[in-house]
Sequence to fold (405 residues):
Amino acid sequence: MIDSNEKRHSRRRARWTAFAAACLAVAGLGVPATASAQTAPPNPDDDPKRVVYVEVNSNDMANVADYSLEGTQRPAFDIAIIFAANINYDTAAQSAYLHLNERVTETLQDAENQIRPLQERGTKVLLSVLGNHQGAGIANFPTREAAAAFADELAAVVEQYGLDGVDFDDEWSKYGENGTGPANEYSFVYLVEELRERLGDDKLLTFYKIGEAAEATEYDGIRAGDLLDYAWNPWYGYWWVPETAGMDASRLAPGAINLTATSQGTAAAFAQRTADEGYGAIVTYNLTAGDHSGYLSSITEPLTGLRTAYRAPWYDVDVDATATCAGDDVKLKVRVANAGGVSVDAEVVSSLGNRVLTGIAAGEDAVAVHRAKGDAIADGAVRVSLGGPDGASAIDAVYTVPDCG
Fold:
């Protein structure tokens, strides 16, 4: 990774500022049925993504799961990247191959503790791949077949360990070593195209935009940007837009933060600028053990309106909200599914009313139904406040409001 000292080269919609007050203690507390005066919370999917690289040679991926957005069960980080696997070069076979060092291998093999807790909380886990000083990299596959062979290796690891995608990083390749060829104009495009074909659209492909590959993202009418999900700025401590053909602002991260070297003020300014200018992500590096929620709050508050909590209560609960028509009125059905190991209570609050569901046992679910009454208007949002042995938290969900005429 490249830090700022190695550099070589308020749009913010209104949010619930009193969120904590709205997260009700479930036991014994309700809200009036005239909850229609309540403003709908924003759709979390609209927030810029918070991305973190974890240097697993010195830190655990599990640290990412320690952070959530205060008062909610939303993760502080949307994407966590295992840093890093390598492209090595087999001089006898004269071909590149995927190398997983000891710590990367340990992380993957300990997926139950290092990866699954993140995914259960809603964080996507990707594997970063970069050169290893041996002449092989993502920008010098000599043929499409060679790129396809490497894509096969990447896809196999994603499938074997249940990962959510791959991050490309063109550092430390040292093109020309061991008799390898120079970077070319088609290698990276071929690799992205081949891997996208293997993984499908439900996996993420991201680009730490640096190196020779950064200058070779289009070939023969194919744009890597049309196949990638996000591109990141690689210069920590600096603001730089990683413009890539085929990618608009919603898929770019110009703000890059080293969590152990970038000042908190700079981190906050980058987060605010990300929100104000409509960029889709912000990238951070080097999450270490311990409580860094104060620093991280300076990033999450401008992006989500919420501070970061450290090791806050979390329950393995899914919420599904669906609205249909009952005559001319909207009928909202909210299913609360408890996939965790402890019993929970849930208070379901929408603009149509509220209902308390008590004692939802582990492995069971319960349903709350709200019907429009009086002047209540469906606003497409629902909040489920949870209570259990570890404390209280909340889940926001959205639904499509039907036209009931």
